[in-house]
Write a structure and sequence with these properties.
Elements: E1 6-9, E2 13-14, E3 17-18, E4 24-27, E5 41-48, E6 53-62, E7 72-79, E8 84-90, H1 91-96, H2 98-107, H3 120-155
């Protein structure tokens, strides 16, 4: 019987070169066949429309903390000719290039959606939804119904 969650290092080898960080990641051993590493690793195919090139992007989130402020990321850009370009950056550097945030959100390696500059809007809809959905939609419906009834009353079509 396999354990539910395991901490283990993941080895990354690209074209015979070792890019392993040695830091353990948490994964479920029963999901090894499906290559799900719980938001630690992901692959994307990135197309540069200006240069008309394609690259495979391996995104790795470093660190065990799910909080973006404490996370670091590594990008491995692998071109068609096999060249590998590595980028290592922290959360502050991530915010300086919006493309990094976009790619991390597409890959889901952050664990949750990242904001581009600030996390203010991350919780904003959460507080407005319970107020806005039932009450504001009721008020809007009541106003529209009252407007419709007054228009019909002016035309003499109300029973």
């Amino acid at each position: 019987m396999l354990p539910k969650l395991t901490l283990a290092p993941v080895d990354i080898h690209i074209n015979g070169n070792d890019f392993s960080s040695g830091k353990p990641i948490e994964f479920n051993p029963s999901d090894i066949e499906t290559s799900r590493y719980y938001s630690y690793l992901d692959l994307l195919l990135v197309k540069d429309l200006d240069a008309k090139t394609e690259s495979v992007l391996l995104i790795e989130r470093l660190g065990a903390s799910p909080q973006p402020e404490k996370s670091n990321w590594r990008f491995f850009w692998i071109s068609k000719d096999g060249k590998v370009k590595e980028e290592l950056f922290n959360n502050k550097e991530r915010k300086q290039q919006s493309s990094r945030t976009y790619l991390i959100n597409k890959s889901a390696t952050a664990g949750n959606h990242l904001e581009y500059k600030t996390r203010v809007l991350g919780g904003f809809p959460t507080y407005l939804y319970p107020i806005g959905y039932p009450w504001l939609s009721f008020l809007a419906g009541a106003v529209l119904a009252a407007y419709g009834l007054t228009r019909l009353a002016k035309k003499g079509q109300v029973m």
